[in-house]
Amino acid sequence: MKINWRVRFKNPQFIGQLVISIFVPILAYMGITAQDLTSWAKVGEVLFEAVSNPYVLMLVVVSVYNSINDPTVKGLSDSRQALRYDKPKEDDQFINNIR
Question: Is residue 17 assigned to a domain?
Fold first, then answer.
C-alpha cells in the first residue's frame, strides 16, 4: 500500500476529514455531542472509554479507512500520478490537463 502521506497532510481538508472520521463515531456511539465536551478532562474520559471499547475502535478504524481510501483507484494505493505530487493538485491544473 503506497500512499503519498506527505501531500495528504499538506491538505487541510484531509486533516479535517481524518479528525472527523475519528471523533464522530466515538461521539455517536456514546450519545454525546461536541457541546458536551466542556473540559479537557471530559475529552480524555471519552477517549479513554473509546479506546477501552473494541466495538468503538472498530467503528473508528472503518471510518478512518473510508477517509483514507481513494475510490477512484483500484486497490488501496494512490495512483502513480498522485505518488509523484509534491503538493495537493489545484483544480485549474486539472482542468488544463483535460483540454
Answer: yes
Domain that holds residue 18: 5-70+88-98
The distance of Cα 14 from the centroid of its chain, to the nearest Å, equals: 6
Measure CA of the first residue to CA of the last residue in the chain; give whole Å. 31
- Domain presence at residue 82: no
Length of the chain counted residue by residue: 99
Which long-range contacts link 22-28 to residues 24+ away (Cβ below 8 Å)? 22/60, 22/63, 22/64, 24/63, 25/56, 25/59, 25/60, 25/62, 25/63, 26/50, 26/56, 26/59, 26/60
CA–CA separation, 91 vs 27, rounded Å? 34
Number of domains observed in the structure of the chain = 1
Q: For 23-54, what is each residue's pLDDT tens digit?
A: 999 999 999 988 888 999 999 999 999 999 99
Residue type, 6: R
